[in-house]
Amino acid sequence: MRIVTTRRTALFSLSALALLLLAGCDNKPADTGGTPNDKSTGAPAPAGGNTLTFAVIPKGMTHVFWQSVKAGAEKAGGEMGATIKWVGAQKETDTAQQIGVVENQMTAKVDGIALAPLDKAALVGVIKKVHEAKVPLVIFDSAADVADDQYVSFIATDNLKSGEIAARQMGKIVGGKGTVIMVPNAANSASTMDRESGFEAVMKKEFPGIKVVRSNYGESDRNKSLNVSQDALSANPDTVGIFGSCEPCAIGALKAVEAKGLKGKVKIIAFDNTTEIEKSITDGTIDSVVIQNPFKMGYESVKALVAAKKGEKVEKKIDTGVVLMTKENMDKAEMKEFRAK
Predict the structure, then answer these.
(1) Structural domain of residue 203, as residue ranges?
(2) Is pLDDT larger for residue 21 or for residue 179?
(3) Residue 34 confidence (pLDDT) above 60
(4) The whole model's pTM is what?
């Protein structure tokens, strides 16, 4: 049988074939104006899909301070096209687990690591491993006992200065005399050790009429800080003030003062801001709080890692700043970025 194709049928077939070929050459979804997103951070992926992945390893995972660090890191990641892996130990006393987290991220071949060492001595070995593997490392919040050629940058508060600020405020509000309890955080935690040293040094030099008594360590735990504060208050009934060198230590001290009916009689200076601390400043239970800028720590850490990957120069030490907030200045414009969120 002979098949006869009309001219019209042939033209139709050729047109259909052309349309199919065009569809095959441009088989892309319609542009909706959106940007590809990393599922964990919402960070826009850069063109070509060469997203840098950085592990940000804090001392703890849940406290509001560390969540502010996370927010800063993710903000920088979103702006600079980097994926942020927020990983860490479950407890701020679990140094072994933090070492394991660092090693796991090296095995995962991340492009860089930002680390807040739980213990300035115990993390030395794994920091050396990171350096030998040529993985860019930023140390933030708390130092480690390593040479500065082991890391890209150290990004933190000037904690010695922070302790000095707290001491001068304490000396002022207690009239330069009496017994003051200091609730320290943890052995070998470089950041809080510096605060405590700064506090004690200023007290000794500038306020010789004040006796500083150390309680046992609060270990970043409110309940433990409550217990050690109660013990210290019982042993020192002439106490006129308490300084908690981190937020859980300060809240524990606050609860101890309230439990012993000493509200208004014992002045409290806290460290690191929360809504609970702000409320206590407003009602007069806490005199003041020394505040860091954890958001900036996270942001600058990721920024430094990106710069390092590009071969750009990074400052070896970046001070993220500190302020003292009191009832008198908490509503001023310059305190806006330090208010509890």
Answers:
(1) 159-291
(2) 179
(3) no
(4) 0.83
DSSP-derived letter for residue 286 is: S
How far, in Å, CA of 85 to CA of 65, rounded? 17
**C-alpha–C-alpha distance, residues 41 and 73, integer Å:** 9
78 lies in a domain? yes
> φ, ψ for residue 100 (rounded to 5)?
-60, -40
Which two three-digit tokens encode residue 42? 């919402």
Burial call 301-332: b when 16+ CB within 10 Å, e when fewer: bbbbbbbbbeeeebeeebebebbbbeeeebee
Q: What confidence tier does 89 reach under pLDDT thresholds 50, 70, 90?
A: very high
Please state, as a whole number, how many other Cβ atoms lie within 10 Å of the Cβ of residue 95: 19
Mode of pairing for the β-strands spanning 52-57 and 112-115: parallel
State CA 324 to chain mean position distance.
19
Give the β-pairing of 239-244 and 178-183: parallel
* DSSP sequence for 165-195: HHHHHHHHHTTT-EEEEEE---TT-HHHHHH
| pLDDT reported for residue 37 | 30
CATH code of the domain containing 126: 3.40.50.2300
Residue 37 bridge partners (DSSP): 44
Cα–Cα distance, 279 to 277 (Å, whole number): 5
Average pLDDT across the chain, whole number: 88
DSSP label at residue 95: H
* Number of residues written out for the chain: 341
Q: Is 207 left (phi over 0), alpha (psi -120 to 50) or beta?
A: beta
Fill in the DSSP letter of residue 306.
Answer: H
Burial of 1 (C-beta count, 10 Å sphere; 0-12/13-18/19+): exposed
41-59 confidence digits (pLDDT tens): 434 444 344 699 999 999 9
Distances (CA, A) of 117 to 50, 106, 121, 308: 29, 16, 9, 20
- Relative to beta strand 288-291, strand 323-326 is antiparallel
Kindly state whether residues 169 and 208 are assigned to the same domain: yes
| SS3 assignment, position 2 | coil
Look at residue 270 and tell me whether its pLDDT is greater than 50.
yes
Two structure tokens written together for 103: 């090693």
DSSP 333: G
29 falls within a domain = no
